[in-house]
Amino acid sequence: MTIDEFSLINEFFTNCTHKRDDVSLAIGDDCALATVPLGYELAISIDTLIEGIHFTAAINPAALGHKALAVGLSDLAAMGATPAWATLALTLPRVDRIWLAQFTQGLSELAVNHGVQLIGGDTTRGSLAVTMQLHGFVPKGKALRRDKACVGDGIYVTGTLGDAGLALQARLKGRELMPENLFYAENRLDWPRPRVPEAQAIRSLAHAAIDISDGLAADLRHILNRSGVGAVIEMESLPLSQPLQSSLERIEALTLALTAGDDYELCITAPLQAYQQMQVLLSNFGCSLTFIGVITEGSDLRCCLKDGTIFTPQYEGYRHF
Prior knowledge:
This protein is about 35% helix and about 25% strand. The strands form three sheets. The chain has a six-stranded mixed β-sheet with strand order 8-10-7-11-9-12. The N and C termini lie far apart (about 40 Å). InterPro entries: PurM-like_C_dom, PurM-like_C_sf, PurM-like_N, PurM-like_N_sf, ThiL-like. Pathway: Cofactor biosynthesis; thiamine diphosphate biosynthesis; thiamine diphosphate from thiamine phosphate: step 1/1. Catalyzes the ATP-dependent phosphorylation of thiamine-monophosphate (TMP) to form thiamine-pyrophosphate (TPP), the active form of vitamin B1.
């Protein structure tokens, strides 16, 4: 049985997420209507995932629904914002009810967990692509930004780095991994956990932040460029998971941690004296925070090995063009 666009939207998306009191009109009209609370700014982010570029045809549809929302939530986390609303533009080669049910299940579970309501969007026919726009709130003047890093700040990262890159090596380059290591790495790649509550907990202590989607080196450079500062990274301090360490030689593991994307952890700059307090706050969420370097004068990013030599990777991270 054929299904038209509006029946598809009504069946799979109208009621698939959290219901919010600040939404007066959601899916079903030309525009959605929602209210921004007094004393807050609206944080907006948009990302597109395209088959063959950001995911393979074999991806679990539920994982794709989860990740489509997670990448936007991670952007909001990088600003210290609280998620609120989402809009979705979905391009499909055909209508597959089983695929759509799984996709919306992955989307719905994460949306409900973070109090996000899907309030509008669009569906069309074409090559598979998912565009998700996220909206959130942050108290006026309190957002974490890329242009606020200060000389003398410590540089910190949440969680571990390089795990998603390890999964991509296995999936795209045929690297053989122990089954338990492959399971761990693919879970990190396909089901990222955006650090939303963690970022809100340390928002008042941090100066600048960015989410690590294109690789630590590439994303940290955005902070340096916007803030007009430099940085020194201690390579041996980069946090590595046990599955990554047991799968690769040390220098290759550190290279992935520095350059691989899709980890969706946070890179944060903050005063050195705030480190212990931030660690305690994040431990309440089961999240680690690791000191990896310092913000310096100048504009260079220097990555130093234990013996003091400068490590220069062949590439710094993912680039679309």
